[in-house]
Design goal:
With 719 residues, this protein is α+β, with helices and mostly antiparallel strands. Helix content is 37%, strand content 17%. Among the domains are: 118 residues, no CATH class; 62 residues, no CATH class; 192 residues, sav2460 like domains (Lipoxygenase-1, Sandwich), CATH 2.60.60. The strands form five sheets. A seven-stranded antiparallel β-sheet has the order 7-17-16-9-14-13-12, with no helix packed on it. Strand 10 and strand 11 form a beta hairpin. The chain is globular and about 80 Å long. The protein starts with a helix and ends in an 11-residue tail after the last strand.
Length: 719
């Protein structure tokens, strides 16, 4: 299982330690099987499999094929409600009338077409009661038989798989990379980190674990296994660890129901608390923020039973209100209320990250005489704050010259708040000064490349992955705000879901917006056709899985195409056994089944908290069509969510994101230009070792080269 996860995460295949032999026939079969799903094995990988005995060669090949099919969503059967889709899809109302006619005839009654249409138009018909509505009327095999084979096109995707080291080495390499990452991980990577920690707990460890959420995952495993805890330097670190060990939320956004801890675990947690507070009593100031959770945790840890750790007992005294310790943020807020903005900045200087996240507010509130004092405090904090915080502030400052038409705040759970931007803009000279200072600070953090930098132009528009929380797991999925070119004449969206225990109805829809972000039409289960856009039909039960498709011809289309997945009834995205969204690109003359893995450009999981998913928007630009990743969820209604009901909120969020300027990989490349040779990759292999930066690395880079591809872009973020 770990081998499969490594392949999906890195596109590297762990080398087999099986017996040597003649596996050339298996290698040829693997090569053909991979091409059928849009992948290709490197020459080294094929040679490795060809040198194995048939049995281990077949085992490795089966693992590889299973991993990549799952990665692009080809491990399930994507059936369409209308067997001829995208052809032979009826008019929506006519289809409903046909289903109603079947119900009337089944009951022995008669009715004219006019009467049936009136019944449908009145809204008094329950579609779920109509014979054959929402359930497949043909098998997947019958669907395939009704379609010709896919006509291959030059632009069809081929993704390269490379040979890695043995599984233990690959696992350790990935473990060290994830644990030592300078940016927060997403939910899928956090789960993978937990599995890797179990396998690597007694091996090499990262020199530093900068992100506290990652640290909590590692320590959660170490706590259960009885290993010493690492990096516990705040009281909140201990709280995060208790949440992680209880299967809860390490980000502390949602409360956790703490489990009962074994006595050795209680001792480790209380000893860690005692050490933190004993070394710095001021850190008790963080306790009040999570007072209720600390009280619940105290009920599980029984601190009164352990006299040897008196400082740990102080934590729970503060939580119960028996002792008051002002927090750093509280002291700064008191100074601000007193009109002392400069002293407030001085207080926050003890927490550089908090100071930089508060910089905009402090600068807006500061008087002319205090502004230089605040700028000085902010600048002094650059050296102590993380690179991720510096880049976040740089991106923020870049968007503060003028008020935004709509201000959007995206939470770590990928929900979004949108409202009017009532903040006054920052002065242009201040923005220029801060931008210059931040540029210099970021450039100073970047390592000096030992080789020329070779950059694929397609990676330049990828937003810097400052947090894994702002994306979903999947294949070719980019961080929020990233832009990717879209080739081909036809977009085909697909969503698949499989319910866990109760009937679940998801609805794939498309909202079309004009240049001013006003609605220009929609296609959904209530409207199968609009100006050439076609829906594959409504499926309302996913006991064995269900898929819906929408085709969007790009010629003469409007400005914005916004696919969305609405939960009409049943289980949420977090509750279903499986749910995904993806898009394919095709030429108009390509035939084939509705789903073909070779045409899949991206496939994203759907695991957010809302009832409406907005994974990506497609925008017409001067450079052609682009996919702009959203990774947002709308809260929606508990049931009956439809595209018609969220048009305004969807358009609001799309507009806010499209108008925001994101820092992209090109920003870091520009910082490197003054310190290293930077070349643009033109498709030709270099003659000397290089540091390659791109979505995918080409095969055949000279020995000694290093590649930063999509799975490693976050490693470019300076610490």
């Amino acid at each position: 299982m770990l081998d499969k996860l490594i392949i999906q995460r890195t596109l590297r295949v762990p080398a087999s330690t099986g017996a040597a032999g003649d596996g050339t026939a298996v290698a040829r079969q693997l090569d053909a099987a991979l091409l059928d799903v849009g992948f290709a094995a490197s020459r080294a990988l094929l040679d490795h499999i060809g040198a194995l005995a048939p049995a281990p060669a077949m085992d490795l090949a089966a693992t590889v094929v299973s991993a990549v099919r799952e990665l692009v969503g080809d491990h399930v059967q994507h059936n369409a409600y209308f067997i001829g889709f995208p052809d032979d899809v009826p008019d929506t109302v006519e289809f409903w009338v046909d289903r109603l006619r079947a119900a009337v005839l089944t009951g022995g009654g008669t009715a004219t077409d006019a009467q049936l249409r009136d019944a449908v138009a009145s809204g008094g018909v329950n579609l779920l009661d109509l014979p054959g509505y929402g359930t497949y009327q043909h098998t997947y095999a019958e669907l395939l038989a009704a379609h010709d084979d896919l006509i291959r096109a030059v632009g069809d995707r081929v993704t390269l798989l490379r040979l890695g080291d043995v599984a233990e080495v690959e696992a350790e390499r990935l473990y060290l990379a994830l644990a030592g990452r300078s940016t927060p991980l997403g939910e899928t990577d956090l789960a993978l980190l937990g599995e890797l920690t179990v396998a690597c707990v007694d091996g090499a460890q990262p020199a530093e674990i900068p992100v506290r959420g990652n640290r909590a995952v590692l320590n959660g495993v170490r706590l259960v296994l009885g290993r010493p805890l690492v990096g516990m330097d705040t009281t909140t670190d201990v709280l995060r660890l208790a949440c992680q060990a209880s299967g809860g939320d390490v980000s502390l956004v949602t409360p956790t129901r703490f489990r009962s801890f074994r006595r050795p675990e209680r001792r480790m947690l209380l000893a860690a608390l005692d050490a933190v507070v004993g070394a710095s009593p001021a850190k008790l100031g963080d306790v009040a923020r999570y007072a209720e959770r600390w009280k619940r945790l105290g009920e599980r840890l029984h601190p009164h039973e352990y006299d040897q750790w008196p400082h740990a007992r102080e934590v729970f005294a503060v939580a119960r209100g028996e002792r008051r310790v002002p927090s750093l943020a509280g002291r700064a807020e008191a100074a601000i209320r007193a009109g002392a903005v400069g002293p407030a900045a001085a207080v926050l200087s003890a927490a550089p990250g908090l100071l930089l996240r508060s910089a905009d507010r402090l600068l807006r509130l500061a008087s002319a005489s205090e502004r230089s004092e605040v700028v000085g405090a902010v600048t002094a904090a650059f050296g102590s704050a993380s690179g991720r915080v510096l880049l976040s502030l740089r991106e923020h400052v870049d968007n503060r010259l003028t008020p935004a038409s709509a201000r959007m705040y995206a939470s770590r759970s990928r929900t979004a708040w949108v409202g009017p931007d009532e903040r006054p803009p920052l002065p242009a000279d201040l923005v220029a000064e801060l931008s210059r200072l931040l540029d210099d600070a970021v450039a100073a953090r970047l390592p000096d490349p030992q080789r020329p930098l070779l950059v694929d132009p397609e990676v330049l528009d990828v937003a810097l992955p400052l947090s894994g929380k702002a994306t979903e797991a999947g294949f070719a999925v980019l961080p929020r705000g990233s832009r990717a070119p879209v080739s081909g004449e036809l977009l085909r969206f697909f969503t698949f879901w499989r319910q866990t225990s109760r009937r679940t109805d998801y609805d794939l829809s498309v909202l079309l917006l004009d240049a001013d972000f006003h609605s220009a039409g929609q296609v959904s289960w209530t409207n199968y056709h609009h100006d050439g856009v076609v829906h594959s039909g409504d499926v309302t039960d996913a006991t064995h899985g269900a898929t819906e498709f929408i085709d969007v011809p790009l010629a003469d289309r409007g400005h914005y195409v916004v696919p969305q997945v609405n939960i009409y009834a049943g289980e949420s995205f977090d509750q279903v056994a499986e749910s995904m969204f993806g898009y394919q690109t095709r030429d108009r003359d390509q035939r084939g089944a509705p789903f073909d893995a070779r045409t899949v450009r991206a496939r994203s999981q759907l695991r957010g908290p809302g009832r409406v998913a907005l994974p990506v928007v497609f925008a017409r630009t001067e450079r052609g069509w682009q996919a702009v990743w959203l990774h947002l969820y709308l809260r929606g209604w508990p049931v009956f969510n439809r595209v018609e009901g969220n048009t305004f909120t969807t358009a609001d969020r799309v507009r806010a994101l499209m108008e925001r300027r994101y820092l992209t990989v090109s920003y870091l490349v520009d910082r490197w230009r003054t310190r290293a040779e930077v070349r643009t990759w033109d498709g030709r292999l270099p003659d000397e070792p290089v540091t390659f930066v791109g979505i995918d690395a080409p095969e055949g880079l000279p020995d000694g080269s290093e590649a930063y591809t999509l799975d490693r872009l976050s490693e470019l973020i300076p610490g």
